[in-house]
Design a protein that fits this description.
This protein has 185 residues and is mainly β. The chain has 1 helix and 10 strands, in the order αββββββββββ.
Length: 185
């Protein structure tokens, strides 16, 4: 009888110590299993699942399940999207160098202390991410989930290399306008 009572007592203590996956927004957690199924554990707190990478913060991507995943690429390593690079870095085009699919190559590099994505620009140096296209600072992307709300991942022609493309986040709706300098008639 005493042995059976101890077993029940141990089970009760074990169950009371487990969070059980019912954690709400802002509750502390040690993993996604500690949070309600509609939430994820990020920085030891239960937060809503993501739909897009910028919801996760710098240095994170948003996976297909809506969980924020830390980026692992460091300065100098190749990247295709802003979400590939660790915090404090951005994915920047290497220049006119292209791959076999005529896509511009890029790598993780330190962010510039200038304009954010979406801001007006004239030159790549004007942008935090080193990419000025169509008169706006553009984050490189692989898919629309990598872009902020109201923007989509689209192919953009490069001014650096004729017929070369790169994928960048541009406004989903509306019209982009920019001045094209004319150097000769």
């Amino acid at each position: 009888m005493l042995r059976g009572s101890r077993w029940w007592l141990m089970m009760l203590v074990a169950l009371a110590g487990c969070p059980g996956g019912g954690g709400g927004i802002g509750d502390s957690c040690g993993g996604n299993d500690d949070c309600d199924e509609t939430l994820q554990c990020l920085n030891s707190r239960c937060v809503p699942r993501c739909q897009r990478a910028p919801e996760c913060g710098d240095g994170f991507s948003c996976d297909d399940r809506g969980n924020c995943q830390p980026a692992s690429r460091q300065a100098g390593e190749p990247c295709e999207s802003e979400v590939d690079c660790a915090a404090g870095l951005s994915c920047q085009i290497d220049g006119a160098e292209t791959d076999s699919n005529n896509r511009l190559l890029s790598h993780c590099a330190a962010e510039n202390s200038t304009h954010p994505a979406g801001a007006a620009c004239v030159d790549n140096r004007d942008c935090r991410n080193g990419t000025c296209a169509l008169g706006h600072c553009v984050d490189l992307c692989r898919q629309t989930r990598d872009c902020g709300a109201g923007t989509s991942c689209v192919d953009i022609p490069s001014e650096l290399a004729s017929n070369a493309l790169f994928a960048g986040c541009l406004p989903t709706q509306g019209v982009l306008t920019w001045s094209i300098p004319v150097s000769s008639p």
